[in-house]
């Protein structure tokens, strides 16, 4: 990328350039541009999206370079995060509605998904069970260990739920010969939503043609602390109703708790424990209404 960047700097003659993660911002007298490495054929994706009536992405200024793309720079206005949540979900439902279709699949497709998630559940159950046994064997527990031990039952209950729901999902889906797919951004977060003269999603490098629920899972895991996801999910499903097997798979994937990472100090470990415990409790609150049975009047 360095060679291409030197060529582009000679062409655009920037008066300032700034590194932004994997991207570089060039500020020039003729406009501002973002330079990003080529990972996937984003140009081909953009052409397809335009053909489907979706153009909420940064314009490609130059796609002719061998190893980089040149994009327009979109300046975003400051706005309340709650408003951003509504806007990004409206944008993603538009993307899914305009690009979704039913694709023929074999039974092996669903079996592979089932076995992959099952393996992940089993790994997490063993991981957390081992943590519990080690912590329980300590004569004098540290505050972080005590915190984990008190909440282990909730993490284990979440994994039991995933295991049970996964078996039911597979029974529901294994006879199907088609599945719904769409263009999936696959890295959805509020940081990748910009609104200026128009609204766009950035960072399409990981896009997929896959089940739309992937975007909901990614958005939830990125933003569960920053938004009322119950309202977001309700808004999404009103505009893009999920099929029963999609909804069940969504709840399985978001219920799977992340691993608790090992930290160097008790303070950091307590904070890390709290992050995962909060995730488990918030997720349970989110999906509980979808499993509640109303009592007859």
Structure description:
With 297 residues, this protein is of the alpha+beta class. The protein folds into two domains: 2-73, Phosphorylase Kinase, domain 1; 95-291, Alpha-Beta Complex (Aminoglycoside 3'-phosphotransferase, Chain: A, domain 2), CATH 3.90.1200. 54% of the residues lie in helices and 15% in strands. It has nine helices and ten strands. The chain has helices at residues 2-12, 42-51, 81-99, 107-136, 143-173, 213-223, 229-239, 244-255, 266-291, and strands at 16-20, 23-28, 31-37, 60-62, 68-72, 101-104, 178-184, 193-195, 199-201, 208-210. The strands form three sheets. A five-stranded antiparallel β-sheet has the order 1-2-3-5-4, covered by helices on one side. α5 packs antiparallel against α8 (244-255) and α5 packs parallel to α9. It starts with a helix and ends in a 6-residue tail after the last helix.
Number of domains: 2
Mean pLDDT: 90
CATH class categorisation of the largest domain: Alpha Beta
Unreliable runs: none
Cα radius of gyration in angstroms: 22 Å
Major sheet summary line: 5 strands, antiparallel
The proportion of residues in beta strands is 15-25%
Taken from the alpha-carbon principal axes, the silhouette is globular
> Which bin fits the share of residues in helices?
40-55%
Distance between the termini: 67 Å
The CATH architecture of the largest domain is: Alpha-Beta Complex
Quantity of strands, as a count: 10
The helix count comes to 9
What is the CATH topology assignment of the largest domain?
Aminoglycoside 3'-phosphotransferase, Chain: A, domain 2
Written as H for each helix and E for each strand, in order along the chain, the element string is: HEEEHEEHEHHEEEEHHHH
Quickly give the structural class. alpha+beta
């Amino acid at each position: 990328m360095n060679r291409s960047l030197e060529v582009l700097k000679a062409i655009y003659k920037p008066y300032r350039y700034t590194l932004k993660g994997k991207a570089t911002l060039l500020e020039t007298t003729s406009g501002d541009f973002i330079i990003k490495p080529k990972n996937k054929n984003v140009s081909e994706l953009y052409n397809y999206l335009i053909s489907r009536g979706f153009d909420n992405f940064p314009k490609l200024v130059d796609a002719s370079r061998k190893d980089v793309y040149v994009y327009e720079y979109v300046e975003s206005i400051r706005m309340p995060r709650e408003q951003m949540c509504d806007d990004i979900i409206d944008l993603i439902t538009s993307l899914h509605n305009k690009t979704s279709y039913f694709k023929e699949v074999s039974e092996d497709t669903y079996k592979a998904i089932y076995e992959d998630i099952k393996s992940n559940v089993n790994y997490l159950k063993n991981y957390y069970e081992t943590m519990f046994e080690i912590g329980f064997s300590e004569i004098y527990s540290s505050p972080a260990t005590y915190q984990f031990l008190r909440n282990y039952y909730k993490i284990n209950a979440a994994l039991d739920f995933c295991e049970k729901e996964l078996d039911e999902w597979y029974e529901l889906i294994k006879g199907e010969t088609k599945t719904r797919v769409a263009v999936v951004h696959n890295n959805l977060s509020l940081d990748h939503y910009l609104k200026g003269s128009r609204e766009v999603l950035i960072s399409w490098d990981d896009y997929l043609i896959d089940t739309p629920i992937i975007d909901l899972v990614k958005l939830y895991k990125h933003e569960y602390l920053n938004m009322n996801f119950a309202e977001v999910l309700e808004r999404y499903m009103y505009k893009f109703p999920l099929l029963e097997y999609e909804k069940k798979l969504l709840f399985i994937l978001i219920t799977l708790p992340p691993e608790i990472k090992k930290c160097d100090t008790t303070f950091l470990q307590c904070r890390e424990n709290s992050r995962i415990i909060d995730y488990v409790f918030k997720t349970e609150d989110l999906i509980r209404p979808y499993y509640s049975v109303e009592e007859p009047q």
